[in-house]
């Protein structure tokens, strides 16, 4: 009888400890607000400088030309400059990602592509070159966040918020120290 009482006491103690441990729903009495992070590539200054130089050179050649062949060369150089500027701006716009952290999970929007993963479905987050990868548990797709080459305050705030929210979803607490 002493053994079963001791056994019940241990089980009850363990059960009480498990019951009082903070769970994902009780870590923070106030739910965290949604956060959105805009990750943008650096402006394509070099490409825009080359494009503007080509456009100006093409325009000058067209203006000063007296021969149709020279005018055609100027038009080609001008068109190259305009197309290069357009391509640089388009690619920069496409490299923009919006990462939204909610109480339920993480969502990433990049152009027309959208992906979402619940906090409980994230196994771990790894950094590879210019990507943060949220590795999903079995049966779910990994979530990839493209990170610009220049990592500034927005990137640091995103990483810190990911850490805090993942810790909170696992019941580790909300201390940031």
From TrEMBL:
Residues annotated as transmembrane: 47-66, 72-91
Keywords carried by this UniProt record: Membrane, Transmembrane, Transmembrane helix
Compositionally skewed regions (Low complexity) per UniProt: 13-26
Region called Disordered, residue ranges: 1-30
Protein name per the record: PH domain-containing protein
Organism (species): Microlunatus ginsengisoli
